[in-house]
Amino acid sequence: NSADDCWTDNRPVITCLRIMFSKKPKTEKVKPVRRKSDISKLNNPEISSLYASFILKLLQSIQSDNQEMDKEWNAIRKTITEVAENTHGYNKMRHKDSFDENDQETSRLIDAKRQALLSHEQDPRSQHNR
Predict the structure, then answer these.
(1) For the segment 26-41, what is each residue's pLDDT rounded down to a tens digit?
(2) Residue spans with biased composition (Basic and acidic residues) (predicted)?
(3) Which of the 8 DSSP states describes residue 12?
(4) In angstroms, rounded to a whole number, what is the distance separating the alpha carbons of residues 82 and 88?
(5) Which of these, 76, 91, 86, lies nearest to 50 by C-alpha position?
(6) HEC readout, the chain
(7) Phi, psi (degrees; rounded to nearest 5) at 17
(8) Are 83 and 58 in contact (CB under 8 A)?
(9) Digit-coded pLDDT (tens) for 99-111
């Protein structure tokens, strides 16, 4: 063996590598929040008549040519949403507290679990006390 005869700094090195490639996360497009009009305010006759008069006034000002229906539709939609925002506004976000609906049932289940734990801890035969 020639390596035994002369000095060399070449030593065989064996290694195992595990190379992991991660996937790029997909970029999600952020959808615009679609706000809902507070239509419950339209039950008030004053707000309802104000809304109707503004809608009629602004829709009559939109010029109509049958060539570009998309532009006309966008103008009508924009007019309706602007009038709705100005006259009766948007709904306020309200989150329901789900614990309040099931308060009695949930409290009963929590108390039963607590009692089971206490009886287990107080039982002299349980593994917990040894």
Answers:
(1) 877 777 777 888 888 8
(2) 105-130
(3) -
(4) 10
(5) 86
(6) CHHHHCCCCCCCCCCCCCCCCCCCCCCCCCCCCCCCECHHHHHCHHHHHHHHHHHHHHHHHCCCCCCCHHHHHHHHHHHHHHHHHHHCCECCCCCCCHHHHCHHHHHHHHHHHHHHHHHHHHCCCCHHHC
(7) -115, 145
(8) yes
(9) 666 678 888 889 9
**Residue carrying structure tokens 């609906």:** 101
> Which residues 6+ apart lie within 8 Å of 37 measured at CB?
81, 84, 85, 88, 89, 90, 91
Token representation of residue 37: 């009009």
The long-range contacts involving 95-102, CB below 8 angstroms and separated by at least 24 positions, are none
Nearest partner of 55 among 15, 33, 86, judged by Cα = 86
* pLDDT on residue 96: 66
Q: Where do we find the tokens 């000002």?
A: 61
Collapsing DSSP to helix, strand or coil, 20 comes out as coil
One-letter amino acid identity for 36?
K
Extents of the domains making up the chain: 36-91
Beta bridge partners of 90: 37
